[in-house]
Amino acid sequence: MGDFDGERKDLPNATAALVLGALSLVFCWCYGIIGLVLGILAVVLTSAPRKAYLENPERFTEVSYKNLNAGRICGIIGICIGAIILLAVILVVVFAVYTSVKPHLLNTINV
Asked: What global pTM score does this model have?
């Protein structure tokens, strides 16, 4: 009768992982930290249900596994983009502090 019969159930946290993964893509542009945290949460939430599906795929629906996998992939992408954005923000702050302190350091050395 197809992929779904009375015995199959949804994987736990599949929808939550999908939502967190999608939100990590949205919020990774907010200085990187929010997307990084949400992406890590999405990837962590997918580990146990993914393992359970791979051990016993006939117990769970394929749709919930696809949602879980999509959330995991979105989380990984959110982690990568968030880390790059966070690194860029840190570099900009360090450069701004360095350029604002550098003239003061040169004045004290020349005196």
From this structure: 0.83
